[in-house]
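S.,

Sequence below, as promised.
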Amino acid sequence: MITHKTKEVSLDELWESTPISDCASRTLGDRIFNLESLTNLHEITRSAIGRLEAESMWLPSVLCGDEVSWTSTESSELDSSLHSSFVVQGERAELDFTIDRSGRLKTFKLPRWGNPDGAESHYVDFGGILEEEGTFCGYTIPTSLRVGWYFGTDRYESEGEFFRCTLA
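The prediction came back faster than expected:
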């Protein structure tokens, strides 16, 4: 099965929905994946860049380069907020991190290109809650987290969270 938007479609249905007159001018891949209805590849690439930016927390050395700028945005008795800015494939990454007083990463947030509500693609707050961490080969990284759209809003808990993982 291939999930197309919210409707599951079998390969047979996709194959049968293609008019015979179109068969000669279309490749098998076009017919199977119905490329005319896929989102523009540029839109997919922009969203994938946001995912790469978010996943940089799993390879902290990425955030240590000279091209990454850091600022402290606010602090409280319990937490500090840091902002990092860098460019990935022409897209400016603007990541916000919340760090507790012991230096443990608690949350991350960034504007990520996407269309989680099914509308036109646009920047949407994306982020996660980092619940546990572990140290591997000298790098401390998140090992348990929850991630989703609409981070920092009421919508995150009710409809935005879509990924949970625990690394062992």
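Confidence is low (pLDDT under 50) at residues 1-7, 18-23.

Coffee later?
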